[in-house]
Design brief:
alpha+beta, extended
Length: 304
């Protein structure tokens, strides 16, 4: 896998000052170095301050960072802009108008630029000047996305388009592309989430029972069942899935009462099955409930 993203800088050879930091993405196919790092060598889409330097001086292009991860490249762009400093903020020599990272953060508009933008969209210059709202827009204003409510992606878009949408979402949100990639949640965070979920259940804001469950009255296809079955068998074979956990006794720490299983606990305590199972399997709220076998092991450890 090649390093797809890069960060570059432009150097004014007359003054040897770095005057621009940018980020680019390599194409899948290229015939030369300048095509591989196309954005770094491009003159298109540059601001007027950059063009003044380019038109009156010789410049040098340098690739200063490469990575597989776009987010990492964006963060490096922000870091380098912060190091060299923006000219419009009187922090350095860079002609960059934002703090980088494709966010448009900290952009400064001059009064002249604001007036130009305003005039360019007024009166006859407005693309909707003298036009009526199209029928589709009127329909969207009234109906919005009501035609998608209570429908699966397949029902709303068709099987092929739904698959493409889901695949694109997976690619953008999973693995290194996920905003939570490499970030470990703290114990305090997990505890607060657990408390928040339980509170939502108690207040009736999170009800997934009966008809409120999104999977109510639905069944998995034979193909999905087969996949789930194969995954569970493989996990069990490799020791990653413990069926006995669902049959183990549970002890209430506050009362000392031992129950045969999770279901029996629900008869005496106001707690949801899923919440309690999550507590037990993740080792949360051990001051209230524990698997009895783990409780005995803990007691033996304390004795030693």
């Amino acid at each position: 896998m090649y390093k797809k993203y890069y960060v570059y800088r432009h150097i004014n050879l007359t003054t040897n000052n770095i005057f621009y930091i940018g980020k680019g993405k390599k194409p899948k196919k290229y015939k030369s170095y300048s095509k591989e790092y196309g954005r770094a060598f491009s003159k298109n889409g540059r601001n007027s301050d950059w063009k003044k330097i380019f038109d009156n001086n010789d410049i040098k292009v340098e690739i200063i960072f490469e990575t597989y991860n776009e987010k990492e490249a964006l963060n490096k762009e922000i870091e380098f802009i912060n190091i060299y400093g923006r000219k419009d903020l009187n922090e350095g020599n860079l002609t960059n108008k934002t703090d980088g990272g494709d966010t448009g953060g900290n952009i400064i508009f001059t009064d002249e630029h604001r007036n130009k933008l305003s005039k360019s969209k007024k009166g006859k210059n407005n693309p909707f000047y003298g036009k009526k709202r199209p029928k589709h827009s009127e329909w969207m204003k009234k109906e919005g996305n009501n035609h998608l409510k209570n429908k699966t992606f397949v029902e709303a878009y068709g099987e092929e388009k739904a698959k493409n949408i889901i695949d694109n979402m997976k690619e953008k949100l999973s693995g290194e592309n996920s905003s939570m990639y490499g970030i470990k949640k703290s114990e305090e965070h997990c505890k607060n989430v657990s408390i928040g979920v339980q509170k939502a259940y108690d207040e009736g804001r999170l009800n997934r029972e009966g008809e409120n469950n999104t999977f109510y009255n639905k069944t998995h296809t034979e193909e999905v069942r087969k996949v789930i079955s194969e995954k569970n068998k493989l996990a069990h074979k490799n020791g990653l899935f413990d069926y006995d956990k669902y049959k183990r006794s549970v002890i209430c720490i506050t009362t000392g009462k031992v129950y045969k299983g999770i279901v029996d606990v629900l008869e005496d305590h106001d707690v949801k099955y899923g919440t309690l199972a999550w507590w037990l399997n993740q080792g949360r709220n051990t001051d209230q409930f524990m698997y009895y076998s783990e409780y005995l092991e803990q007691q033996e450890t304390h004795k030693e």
